[in-house]
Amino acid sequence: MTLRYYHAEPLANSLKSMVPLKEKGLAYESVYVDLHKFEQHSDWFTAINPEGQVPVLDHDGTIITHTTVINEYLEDAFPDAPLRPRDAVGAARMRYWNKFVDEHVMNHVSMHGWHRMVGVIARNIENGDFDKLLESIPLPDQRKKWATARSGFSQTDLDNATAKIEYAVDKVERQLGETRWLAGDMYTLADINFYSHCGMMVERMFPDMEIAKRAPRLCEWRDRVTARPAVAEALKSEDRTAPGLRTWSGHVR
Ligand SMILES: N[C@@H](CCC(=O)N[C@@H](CS)C(=O)NCC(=O)O)C(=O)O
Fold first, then answer.
1. CA-proximal residue: ligand 1, atom 14 (nearest)
2. CB of 83 within 8 A of CB of 75?
3. Atom of ligand 1 nearest to the CA of 145
4. Residue 136 gets which letter from DSSP?
5. Burial class (CB in 10 A: 0-12, 13-18, 19+), 160
6. CATH class of 88-228
7. Domain boundaries, given as residue ranges, for the chain
8. Which phi and psi angles does 62 have, rounded to 5°?
9. Ligand 1 atom at minimum distance from 33 CA
């Protein structure tokens, strides 16, 4: 049995599926895809994932993409050290939170990240090279996102994203007043999802939100997730993050 995991730095989507691999103690071959060199759009990589995005799991030659799908796949294929409740209600609660993070959190945090970091990279690319870069991006939405990052996201869009993140922070804070973990009394893929996309970096990315005051339970939960050996290992391993990116993400060293 071989597992190969194609990923970038351990944050956001790349972290989200790396943590379950480590929580389950699965041996895998790590293949770093350098987003700063646009390797995700290169021929060798789009031959593996035609959508040109990381991460990707290769299990004995079967390619699985999209983090929520990868994580449920790992759960089904390797049920030991479960990260999904075995009862139907618990699994539904976990999926409710995964859906919320995937649809209402991830893209909003990502927009702020792209605005601060990718925008700078995109503006440093010469016009002709940038057009070539756009042509090499397989997903139309990603192509638009790169173009917008270069010209700059509008303040209205950024404010809207901030409001969505504040909503999510308050929602998580309320939930943690009722249950120890997002989906109940068990640490699940939902915790890993919110942590990877928002929880681990929200305080550093948005100092104006005064997260420590506004969401103390979220901070305590974040520290509990960070302290898990699998998470700590994922955060410090395979880290080729440029110092600038580390600052942007609030990346834990
Ligand atoms: N829905 C996908 C999203 C994957 C995604 O957005 N990956 C980002 C990295 S966090 C990426 O590959 N970005 C580079 C690009 O799109 O050019 C998933 O859950 O895996």
1. 53
2. yes
3. 16
4. T
5. middle
6. mainly alpha
7. 88-228
8. -90, 130
9. 12
